[in-house]
Structure formats: C-alpha cells, structure tokens
C-alpha cells in the first residue's frame, strides 16, 4: 500500500508525564494533535500489524488478542521482541543470542526457552515496535 494513501488518525496529545498516583486535570495540558501512524510507524512500507494469540508473552505486556506492530526493515538485536518463523510456525518471543547460540524466550515462566539448532528452519520476520492491547486483558494477570 502506498504510504501517502494510508488513512491517518490524529488524536490529542497530552504532553505531560502522568504519575500512576494522584489525579491531575489533564485537559489543561492539551498541546497539539499527533498522527498515530507517524507516532507508531517509522517505516510504513515495511510495517504491518499482526494479532497475537496465547499467553507466552504476557509478562512483556502482550496479552492474548493484542495487536503487534512489526517492522520488517529493522535488524533484530539481542533482547528484541521478534516475530519469528520456526519450522513453518509463527511465534512471538524475545530474541536471545550470544556468539555461539540463539534462543527464543517467552515472557512467561510456564514456557521453556526454544534453542535454535542447525536442524531448525528459523527466520526473523520482523521486530515488534509497538503493542496495542486492551488493558482489561491484563487484569487477569494482576488480579487472577
């Protein structure tokens, strides 16, 4: 899709730091509007959104049903959250690597690290740059 033809959505920007404590009348601080595309997408031609399923990344604030903004133009670095394909299956995990080995690591202790071996067919499709999630979906993590 041509980046110039993408729909844009400008919303008010409250350019203040918001403490998770005492409330403040934020309407007095409306500075301007931001284009959400410009704010979240740096490389429109190589960026896409994918919906996540499962809870393997819940402790990275990625609940089931979250939408992930993935940029294919970025080179994945150690510690990045990546969209990978392992033996034909998509997965979202942390990329962990050193000079000798590479793993995909979940952000949930219920899941084991997946060590990438030479026998596996693994490729990184892109780096997750933003997470769009309903905070109510994280409620079960915090309150059971």
Describe the protein in words.
- β7 (102-105) and β8 form a beta hairpin.
- The longest helix has 5 residues, at 36-40.
- The protein folds into two domains: 3-40, no CATH class; 45-143, Ribbon (Umud Fragment, subunit A), CATH 2.10.109.10.
- The protein is mostly beta strands and 144 residues long.
- A seven-stranded antiparallel beta sheet has the order 3-4-9-5-6-7-8, with no helix packed on it.
- It is built from two helices and nine strands, in the order ββαβββββββα.
Sum up the structure in keywords.
144 residues, 37% strand, mainly beta, 2 domains, 7% helix, two-stranded antiparallel sheet
Listing every helix as H and every strand as E from the N terminus to the C terminus, the arrangement reads EEHEEEEEEEH
Q: Shape, please?
A: globular
Ends apart, CA distance between termini:
42 Å
Radius of gyration: 18 Å
Topology, please?
Elements: E1 10-14, E2 30-35, H1 36-40, E3 47-51, E4 67-71, E5 81-86, E6 89-97, E7 102-105, E8 114-115, E9 122-132, H2 139-143
Antiparallel strand pairs: 1-2, 3-4, 4-9, 5-6, 5-9, 6-7, 7-8
Short description:
This protein has 144 residues and is mainly beta. It contains two helices and nine strands, in the order E-E-H-E-E-E-E-E-E-E-H.
